[in-house]
Each structure stands twice: as structure tokens, then as C-alpha cells.
Amino acid sequence: MFNEVKSAMQKPTRKYTYREVDESEVISALEDLFVIRPQTLRNICKHFVDELTLGLKEDGHTLKMIPSYVANRPTGKETGSYLALDLGGTNFRVCEVYLEGDSKVRLTQKKFSIPDYAKCGQSDVLFDFLAESVLAFITENNIPTESDIPLGFTFSFPVKQTAIDKGYLINWTKGFDCKDTINKDVVELLNEALARKNVKVHVSALVNDTVGTLMSHAYNDPGTMVGVILGTGTNAAYVEKVSAIPKWEGGPVESGEMIINCEWGAFDNERVVLPFNKYDQMMDEGSNNKGEQTFEKMISGLYLGEIVRQVIVELIQRRVLFGGISSPEIETPYKFETAYMSRIERDHTSDLIDTKMVLQELLNIPYPAPRDRRIVRRICELVGTRAARLAAVGVAAVVTKMNRVDSGCTVAIDGSVYEHYPHFANRMKDALHELLGMFEENVSLQLGKDGSSVGAGVIAALA
Ligand code: BGC
Questions:
Q1: Probe ligand 1: pick from 169, 170, 172, 209, max atoms within 8 Å of CB?
Q2: CATH number among 3.30.420.40, 3.30.300.30, 3.40.367.20, 3.50.30.60, domain 15-68+221-449
Q3: 6, 174, 356, 401: which is the annotated catalytic residue?
Q4: Between 20 and 30 A from 388 (CA), which of 11, 123, 368, 377?
Q5: pLDDT in tens, 339-360
Q6: Residue nearest to atom 1 of ligand 1 (CA)
């Protein structure tokens, strides 16, 4: 494949190598693959609701529907100072969360980027890195450790939770792959690493970022019933009645409620309802968890840029884009970041000047003609819009499962895609309208910033 691709530095000297396919023809072929019509949205939603119900019945279904052992929602009156450690996206954060007791929170935090060797090596390397970061944070902020501080551990991967402070990793997602962590209790791994580094902190709660987002938002908005992450990965958690969870074996629950971590990223791994097309397939082939996280791969930040890159590379190979001229950068997996899509979708200049800059300066494409820039922009729009519409299907399905379409609820959403991708929230709202009609107004989508870290503090307070 690479031999056929011309080098970036080579000029398109002979015009006839460039098949100037009509722009609208190219775009309409792509629209056929990426546009999801309202009826399809409704079919996906129906199947989603069935899958949510099935996952609550027993283990082993596509949606894991994991009871979080968080059975009480906050009142907003909880107080105290807690440590939170948040692992799950591109960055890793250590925070001190101060709950002030009147629905107010203060946060001191430090971000660390996780080196690739820690993401995919031995477990101990990763957990030692986490413990060292906690130590660095405590030292820098002069946090006294005599009292063995409680720590909420936000660990945003599928774990089989057996207590509020115990959970066994089922599988990694989002590019992580430390093989020897599978089936181990991640709280024990962290406690051991903290002990190795002599850090006097103990893990009092294990939290998924979606559960954290729900709880942190509920600290000042009691109507919050759903927490969603739309970032590097995607997932949702919601408040379920214990009586509707046949597989629950944890004994009576006073509140009668349990927050369920859906692990919706795995929705339709069987690939029966989602319009997973040839470009998604190519992206999936190159991922380190092929066949898994189908829904996540069509929605979340780790993958959107890569889908766009797959489309562009194919159009270059067919000599439909850039006169057939490629570059080593565009040929490199994951080099086209989702952040570039945001930039391109934000480019409203008539000549698409910023799109040209992204293509030339970041991707080393020498001659992105105006027609090519328009096609690239449309590809971004199609992939970004499809993601938002699918995210909306997930929200509609969860709200339908909760019987909250009539009575309404707040959905707290955190994550870089929701926060920074242009038009994402509005596109979700449009799709929710197609799915729920006028009831869409009952579903209030709210940005829940820093929810995964603050939520860990709130849950540590309740634990
Ligand atoms: C993980 C979830 C997490 C989500 C968002 C997914 O890949 O499996 O546990 O909530 O990403 O971070």
C-alpha cells in the first residue's frame, strides 16, 4: 500500500494522474455511509433499551450493567477534605476535593500524562507510577498524612465491583493494555503500590468516572439521575431501582436504589444495529481491542480522528483527494487527532484557511486545494455528527429505561468531546428531539465539569 502512495514532497507534475471526481459525488457517497436517519436512530434506541434490561438480569451480556455499590445520592451537605485519583482518559489527575457542605466544592489538582510504557507494560509499573504521583501531589501541597487520608479512586475501565472498595478488572479499553491486571482487584494493586512507596493514604472507594460525574452533579442538583462521559472513551451510569436488578446479590439496600455503570461502550459488539461501515472496520482492525467497544469506537475522542484519517487515506489512494499525493503523517495511525476535527469544524472562513493550515502544517499535505478542504471539512462534519447522534441514542435509551421521559431528569455530561467539539451538544439535542419528540425538553443535558474527580471525593465522603 505504502509503495503506491507518492511522497509528500513530490509535486503533482502530470495532471492526468488526478481524477477530478465531482465534489458532490464524493460527498454524497460518504453521506450514504455516515448519515443516520431518524428511523434508524429509533431502531437502535429500541435495541439499546432491550440490552440495558438484559444486562441487569445476569452477567455475561454485552452491556455489563455493573452495580456500583453507590446506593445513596448526596444531599449537598457532606463536608470534608478528600483525595481523589482519576485514571481513565488521556491524562491522569490527583486532586484534593474540599466539600464545603452547601453544595459548594473546591478543587486543587495536578495533571500527569501517562507514559506509553506504563499504559501497556506490567501492572506494577502503572500502579507505581500512580502511587508516585500521589506522593508528589501530597508533598507539593503539604498535605498531612498522619491520619491515613481516605482516597476515592476513579478507575474508568470495566471492573466487576464486589464492594465499594473492591473491583476486579474485566478488560482494558482506550488503548491501555497491561495484561497482568486482568481479573485483579485494582484497589489492592493501588494499596500495595502506595505501601511500596510508603504513602499513608488508603483507598476508601472505587469509582467509575460516569458514577463520579453523576454524584458530583447531584451534589448541587438533586434532579441528576444520569452521568455520561463523552471524552477519550464513552459510557453512562444512572440511578436504578434495586428491584429492577435481578442479578443483584448484595443484600437489602435501604434506599432501594443503586447506581448502575452501564459500560455502554460495548453496545452492539455483535454489530447488528449500528451502521458500522468499511471505514469503522478499518479503524477497528488497527486498534488493540478489535471487535470490542463498538459503540465507543463510533463516538469517542480516541477514535473519531482515526476514522476521518481512514476516509482521507482511502480517497488519496483512489486519487480523489490531494491529487493522489499523500504524506507520512496522514499515513500514520492516530496522527489525525479528534482535536483537528474540532478545529476544522470551527473554520468558517470562506476559503477554509484554518483547514488548510491543519492539512499543510500538521499533516504535511502540500497542496490542499479549496475543493479538497471542503471535502475534508464535510468528512469531519459527517463523522462528528454521527457521533453526537449516537450519543443521543444512548441517553434516550437510558432515560426510557428509567421511565423518566415524562417526568424528566438532569443528565450530567463530562468529557473533552462534549465540552470542546463544536456543535456536539446541539446535534445531540436535535437527535433527542427526533427520538423523544416534545419530551426532549424534559431531558436536561448539563456540562458536569471535573465530575469524575469531584465525584470520587463525594463518594469517599459517603463511604
Ligand atoms: C470505559 C468506561 C469509562 C469510559 C469513559 C470506557 O472505555 O470502559 O469504564 O467510563 O471509557 O471514560
A1: 209
A2: 3.40.367.20
A3: 174
A4: 368
A5: 999 999 999 999 999 999 999 9
A6: 157
